[in-house]
Amino acid sequence: MDKQTLVEFESFIKNYKVIKFDKIWEKSDSNYKLIYNIEGLTIDTKFYANVKLIFWLDSAKEQFVENVITYLYTLYCDYKTITITTVAETFENILQLLDQEQTNKDMSDFILAGTEAFNAELKEKNVNNFIQNLKFIPQGNMPCATMDFKFELQSNDDTYAFTLKAYINKWELSYDSNKELVSLSDVPKKLIEWIYEIK
After folding, report:
1. pTM for the whole thing?
2. What share of the chain is helix, strand, coil (3-state, %, to 5)?
3. How many Cβ atoms are within 10 Å of 198's Cβ, its own excluded?
4. Cβ–Cβ under 8 Å, residues 108 and 46
5. Regarding predicted confidence, which is higher, 10 or 174?
6. Among 77, 54, 51, 78, which Cα is nearest to 165's?
7. pLDDT above 80 for 121
8. Which of 9, 42, 88, 100 is deepest in the core (most CB within 10 A)?
9. In the chain, what are the domain boundaries?
């Protein structure tokens, strides 16, 4: 395997609908790792908020040190490694593994559900407003330890920015000066309470 595989990979990714795609090189001992960051990947009815892939190359950045890809398995920074077969097959295998992982499934469901849960919460709380769009904001390649997920909730009268960060079994929701660990399904309820100061 050599650098041609990377060219094939980048061409392959361009066939998909992606909000943001970038890469960075990082020194790793005497060699290098090439980190690809794919945000907002949509395939059929599935959404991948962040697919992070690491290729391990030699000091000349030409040859693979190992014929593997290390990938971000959970959104709370658990990585796994898979052997490279073909570009298409390996990428498909990684996506299938991500489909089975809970934080990726939860985030996909949350984004694809869009405004429905937020508008249901507004109705429940008798708030006279309507959420038009839940917008995912990509941030580019960054260390996983500092990675969070930024959103804009766009309503009839304003836009509300909030952030989610994954932990094991919980998500940290941040809005304005408020911060709380919640389940992802509770985000619409908690956020509407904070925005409209509902006790």
Report:
1. 0.91
2. 30, 45, 25
3. 12
4. yes
5. 174
6. 77
7. yes
8. 9
9. 3-101, 114-195
